[in-house]
Amino acid sequence: MDVQTQQDLQQRFSQLAQRSFRLKISILLLILVSLFAVWSTLTNGSAKAEQVDIAFCNEIIKDPYYGPVEIRGDYSCDPATMLAYTIHDARHHHDDDAPYPSTLSPQDLTERIRNWLGHVKQFRDYDWNRRQAYRIELSLPYTKSADSLNGSLISYGWPFCALLALSVAITLGFKQTCYEMNLSALITRVESKADSGREFALTEFMATDISEVRSDGRLIFLYKRPIALYPEIIVSGVLFGAVSLLSLNLLTDYTPQFSERGYELFGDYYYIALYLFFVVLFLLLLRTRRLWRSSVHNVVGGEVKSARLFFLYKFQRFLHDKSVAGVRLETALVSLCAGLGLVSLFLSWGDSYRGFVLLCCPMRFFDDEPITGRLLQLQMLIAVVFLIAELVSRLPTVSRRRQFHVALTKVRVVVTWPVILFSGFILFYAFIGIYGFVKDLYLWPVLDAYNPKAVENLQYLPTLGDADFSLGFTTFVATCGILALHEVCPRSCPE
After folding, report:
1. For a disulfide at 219, which of 44, 302, 326, 356, Cβ 3.0-4.6 Å?
2. pTM of the model
3. Nearest residue to 383 via CA among 337, 419, 409
4. What is the tens place of the pLDDT at every residue in 179-211?
5. How far apart are CA 37 and CA 40, in angstroms?
6. Radius of gyration of the chain (CA)
7. Measured distance CA(444)–CA(451) in Å, rounded
8. Positive or negative torsion for Cα 283, 284, 288, 289
9. Which of these, 332, 333, 360, lies nearest to 345 by C-alpha position?
10. Closest to 59 measured CA to CA, from 150, 129, 134
């Protein structure tokens, strides 16, 4: 490659990297502006919804069907204290009522059912009126009248839009990094130090260090950006963090208002849909990164890895190669982790049951929700089969039986991704709830920004039960997740 061609390539890669950065910043700024518009719309709707809440609360506290409320007195419908709790208690006041006595006459039974349906309709009307408070009028060009839009749909759809937009920004970051790697490879080939310094400056200092190492006979290039104050990284990092946190706040502060979620782990379809959408985007990002990095590998002449994360690769190789008493450390750790996961089934997962009960007879606890019980049993069965396959396939006697070992390996491959999905959803579900509680109960009061409206939504946030934070359940989920990631990372993690 002659000098002129190399300079042209350097200039082109510099322009492409700058274009990717500018486009990424533009997308983040657009998301931020849209986020403030959405936040303003929902804030105005909340003010109107509060009047609907007060009017409905004053109506139900006079209805004997919902029980006495004298304990709260005049504060029953106070927006800053008991308003949300009064409506919530009334909504669930009869959830645990015993079945109607068989001695009731047909007339009395009909009257009770009619009374119950009337109050169900009452809450449906209340929910409809509350959603109407968030309706906004859109005046479009060339239209004679304004169109009405349900503002609550913005709260439902924004997390999906934010995830998609952030994924696009991350993809542009991947592209920018690939351009910078190509640019760095060109700079390192300049032999003269004076010419190298000049070319480095002409790239607006976007080129970084690339060094060569050998590992297991393979040539690996380590890519590292020196620690310094880079305006591009600061600007994109601040914008990315602001969009992520504000979108998460929007999810925890407003979205739960429009339907009650968080009481049933596998019946929570909104969070399941949001999690699956996140998983699809994550897998697409991994594939995109792998495709673009492979082109860099071809140009550079070997694998390109992060220099700061290279210690993880070396640690993995150490566990794989190091043996103690003829047993590899990797095999010992995997067997120990799988054994802990199986032992955790016999630990307490709650006040009255152990983990294996959900595997053999979940209907003891889900007798009124058979579908949920069977789904939970299926997930437990997949996880236990995975743990057993991980443990048994590492036994020396099994390793010598090739056909049996190959069959166990196939079982591990088949059940690994379901285990990752189940474990990841539990972490995702718990993170949203814990974040909302910590933010509203601890962080905002410390910052003197207490928000009573956000605190009202704590009852709607996804929450895990006491059993889900027990030692047995935590150990089971952690061991399954760690082993599943260990199973897929060597094949799926990008270089």
Report:
1. 302
2. 0.76
3. 419
4. 888 777 777 665 555 556 666 666 666 667 777
5. 5
6. 29
7. 7
8. negative
9. 360
10. 129
